[in-house]
Amino acid sequence: MAPKPEESPSRAEWFCVRSQPKHEHIAAAHLRKISDVETFLPRIRFKRATVRGGVWTTEALFPGYLFARFPWSATLRAVQHARGVQGIVHFGDRWPTIAEATIAELRAALGAEELHVVDAALAPGDVVRVAEGSMRGLLAVVSRVRSGSDRVAVLMDFLGRQTTVEFPAAALVREGDGRADVI
After folding, report:
1. Burial 45-66 (b: 16+ CB within 10 A, else e)
2. What pTM, to 2 d.p., does this model score?
């Protein structure tokens, strides 16, 4: 429901806070310094395909947004003017809150560190795209993953025939996970 200053002046509720672009972590850090404000910034960590190969990246799960729990009437101004904050999501004079159960579910899924690591481990049969080198952009199928090594053998169509080629695991991106589109 939409809280109004006269309805819940001192009760802390969860709100969706809009951050400045790519400043979610800065906004969260500054909000944590304000008394009576609890923040929740869900993030994901994954390997992104780049020209240099696979690079680990951490991003906000909801780019441009984070969650803050605070008493609306007492802390609204301080939250709105915190560094990195662009504003609090509202619709005219309606200030929607987020249910405690929703935040609890997100926390349960992400863990205490508010971070979910996307497993980039490859398995035989996975369709992958080469992310670096002279074969960049070509599709292949994982045939063998060497245990204790960072090398993966893939089967690919090359020059009209199927060939087995080995690559570093960081040079391959699983097809269909969205990151292969940047190659």
Report:
1. ebbbbbeebbeeeeebbeeebb
2. 0.65
**Residue-by-residue DSSP string for the chain:** ----TTT-SS-EEEEEEEESTT-HHHHHHHHHTSTT-EEE--EEEEEEEETTEEEEEEEESSTTEEEEEEEHHHHHHHHHTSTTEEEE--BTTB---B-HHHHHHHHHHHTTTTEEEPP----TT-EEEE-SSTTTT-EEEEEEE-TTSSEEEEEEEETTEEEEEEEEGGGEEETTSSGGGG-
What tens-digit pLDDT sequence spans the chain (183 residues)? 444 544 455 789 999 999 999 999 999 999 999 999 999 999 988 777 667 766 788 899 999 999 999 999 899 999 999 999 999 999 999 999 999 999 999 888 887 788 877 766 788 888 988 887 888 888 999 998 887 667 889 998 877 888 898 888 878 888 766 554 444
